[in-house]
Amino acid sequence: MGIKGKIDKMVVLACEDCKRRNYTTTKNKKTLKERMELKKYCSFCGRHTVHKETK
């Protein structure tokens, strides 16, 4: 769940290559309607890959 009284919501980021959920972050639901997509380091793959928001 998000932080109480805030618009931000906690989201989970999963690696596109290995599909493992590595990161959590917050997202402002009013300004970002679509799913987040960030390039982060995956310790399982051993390199930087695209991480997308999951449900």
Could you give a quick summary of the protein structure above?
The protein is mainly beta. It has strands at residues 8-15, 21-28, 37-42, 47-54. A four-stranded antiparallel β-sheet has the order 2-1-4-3, with no helix packed on it.
How is this structure best described in words?
With 55 residues, the chain is mostly beta strands. The chain has a single domain, classed as Single Sheet (Rubrerythrin, domain 2). 0% of the residues lie in helices and 55% in strands. The protein has strands spanning 8-15, 21-28, 37-42, 47-54. It has a 4-stranded antiparallel β-sheet with strand order 2-1-4-3, with no helix packed on it. Strand 3 and strand 4 form a beta hairpin.
CATH class: Mainly Beta
**Rg, please?**
12 Å
Low-confidence stretches: none
Helix content range: under 10%
- Strand % is over 45%
Give the SSE order as H and E letters: EEEE
Shape: elongated
Distance from N terminus to C terminus (CA atoms, Å) equals 12 Å
Please name the fourth-level CATH homologous superfamily.
Ribosomal protein L33
The CATH architecture assignment turns out to be Single Sheet
Write down the overall mean pLDDT.
89
Sheet with the most strands, sense and barrel status: 4 strands, antiparallel
- The CATH topology corresponds to Rubrerythrin, domain 2
Q: Give the beta-strand count.
A: 4
Task: Output the strand order for the largest sheet.
Answer: 2-1-4-3
Query: What is the count of structural domains?
Result: 1
Specify the structural class. mainly beta
Number of helices: 0
